[in-house]
Fold this protein.
Amino acid sequence: MRNKYIFLVLILLTFFVGCNREKKQLNVFTWAGYVSDDIREGFEKEFGVTILVDTFASNEDLLTKLMAGATGYDIIMPSDYMVSILIKQNLLAELNRDNIPNFQNISPLFLGKYFDSENQYSIPYTFGTAGIAYDSAVISPAPESWAVLWDDQYKNQFSMLDDQRETIGAALKLLGYSLNSTDPEEIRAAKEKLIAQAPLVKQYKSEAEELLIAGDVVMAHCWSGDAFRAIETRPTIRYVIPKEGSSQFIDAVCIPKSAPHKALAEQFIDYLLRPEVNAKITAFTKYGTCVPTAKEFLPENLREHKFIYPPKAVLESLEWLRDPGDFTRHYDRAWEEIKAK
Ligand code: N2P
């Protein structure tokens, strides 16, 4: 009898010691090229944990995974309109501000937005735009319109974002409509446009900078920071926001309701909001910082660059993507048909 107890105690002890030795793991689900090694390693060292980063190509990919019951994620980075959808679906945890004292470092310009008016569920990570990146050594004069992505002389030499709202959005803009159209006729027209374009498209890919850097394409429907990153390797690359207008976004940091390590996730958010860490986000992603004091830690060329801060006239041509509610199924269906081509 006694031996049995000793045996049991030994087993339990081994189990607990084993558990303790295992480091806590923070699981981050985000866009490609969004969390640099130095940001990850800085947190890992200071907090004695490991961070695992997994990536998605679009907000809809993220939503699909979460709706399918993915429960391992502690940190996710949806864009603005997807924050509203996730709140509505009851998939986000409320942030405890007591654990995020650096919240005060955020510029009010990026707080209280339509998608989370009290910032109960999100803090801003970066902001940017969508447009066209092109190699000025090959394509000249500079394109001005989305129409260049329908020019058959560039057949097989360009990519489109693998993102239903952005890509249908580009076609809607070309046609003179809103990114947030809820008119079935307009969605049909945009869909027809994109079906006609499909034979020209080399690839639908959200990580467009990879194609630009490899020289697989000379032009890409692309997000601003990713174009900016491609320039480091290929200095002839330029970025333009077409005259018909485009999208702008704020990508947020949220904690899913199902997060296994909520307190640690809040510590991570607080860490991201330290000015010197936040500067590393911009230095790496080439998207804008929402922490004004981070600018002190940024090289001159990243403080006011026009890729990050477009001129006023361009800004005025930009729209935010919004949650179209039940109408989303029209976008879903159109996208399925386009991708089937
Ligand atoms: C970064 C992608 C930016 C995300 N590679 C656009 N919301």
